[in-house]
Amino acid sequence: MRSIPEMLDELQQRAGKDEKLRQELLKTRQEANPLSAFCKKCRESGYEIYEMELINAGEAFYAEMKRSTNGGGENSPVLEGEDDFYELFFAGLEQIKN
């Protein structure tokens, strides 16, 4: 079973080669519930990504990073945005120019 980051990476690469898919993914951000629309488009594209799994994957990744830095104590550096795979996906997608 592929992880959420692996699926997002593969989808982002695919969207980089397919302008129609890229535009469809970007358009999900304009929906009333953008996260749900995005996950629905992921599933339509063959990637079993659901809202809570996407959120949990980001939070789990952030927790692992936090624990691995300086013992995970209060002096660990703040990792801004590292827990939001959804936003990171779109940041990368918006940089792709076809």
Q: Structural class of the secondary structure composition?
A: mainly alpha
Instruction: Name the helix and strand elements from N-terminus to C-terminus, one letter apiece.
Output: HHHHH
Largest sheet: none
Residue share in helix: 55-70%
- Whole-Å distance between the termini? 30 Å
> Can you tell me the number of structural domains?
1
| Average pLDDT, all residues | 81
Strand content: under 5%
Estimate the global geometry from the Cα principal axes.
globular
Could you tell me the number of beta strands? 0
Tally of helical runs: 5
Rg from Cα: 15 Å
Low-confidence stretches: none
Summarize the structure.
The protein is built from five helices and no strands. It is mainly α and 98 residues long. α1 crosses α2.
Report on this model:
This protein is mostly helical and 98 residues long. 64% of the residues lie in helices and 0% in strands. The protein contains five helices and no strands. The radius of gyration is 15 Å and the shape is globular.
Write the layout of secondary structure elements.
Layout: H1 4-17, H2 19-27, H3 34-44, H4 51-68, H5 85-95
Helix pairs in contact: 1-2, 1-5
Task: Offer a few descriptive terms.
98 residues, mainly alpha, 5 helices, 64% helix
